[in-house]
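G., the chain you wanted modeled:
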Amino acid sequence: MAISADVLATALQELMPKYSELFVQWHPILEKIVLKGNLTKSVLTGPYREFTVVTDGPGSVTQVLTGSEVIAGGRRQNASRGDTYAPRLIYAFDVPGKDLAEANGEQDLARILRDYPELGMSDFHERYADQLATGDGTDVGGLLTLNGDTTYNPNGTARTGVFEFAATTAQSSTVFGLGKPAAAGGLAGWHNQYGQVTSFATDGRSTMRQVYYACSRQGKSMGPVDLMLGDETSYLNYLEDLDDHVRTTAVQNDHVPGNVRMGVKFLDADFFLEDALRPAATAFNSGAGRNGVIYFMKTASWHMYTLGHDASKETKGDFSLRGPFRLPEQDLFRYEIVDYRGIHCNQLRCNGVIEGSSIA
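Predicted structure as tokens:
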């Protein structure tokens, strides 16, 4: 019995939530944002989302000595508005009608699912991870990148990646629409923590601790840094430095095997090797991160939202499947995986980066 495009579509609709969840659980940034309850469905009045950043308290303190002091009141304006844009990304693949006509039963359906949508989703996820970590994901350049050496373009205008490789007072880029301290009209307190390793054997772990605690002291109600991502050499340097004192952690739930992504603990953070973090890539164009990179993230300060309402039309924007559509004048059925999400941070100083960690 030949398999129709509708049968394939039904099978895909049942599998797509699992594919999407596998990626969320496989990628610790998205997983931790979801677990923190910071994933929302947004209804926007325009093409972007605004959020509030508060860098200092709103009032002042008066010490009373005699009882006749005038209590200083008023209100200090320490709130600023950041903004974030969500890129709409569509991964399309075509299934030949000939393949469907020649397919016979569940075995052939499984083969088609492996050959087309499963490989397509895997490819989409890998591009996504490349863009987040390094900023060079193929055809997904609108998605946020953590690499402050490059830019991403969600709405037609280039925006700088999040983590700048510079001391606080020297950070001058604009991130999420807000200038860092050294920028013209920059915002005090809107910066990431930073450290530089001369060699891992000499000051690797001490620099990691320095940046970890610098991040963790900020936004105290959100707890300590809970996620770290490093390139392979930096990660292996840390393991080598620990010698036998290694405690592993894993991203897992009842849908994925426990060895999907293994990591180790660094203080209270889960430290993972990020294959997509490649310091040798040209996206690290200033050369600052070429000798190893480790990101430090307090994921309670990160938020994610998806856009879309009707699953059968624009989709809900969370790696949603749309199709099939028969292509005019061709014996092909097109399927589309649609992702429409934005990611942003509202307390940048709770997060940081170190460079030089791959130098032994």
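The CA atoms of residues 11 and 193 lie 46 Å apart.

Shout if anything looks off.
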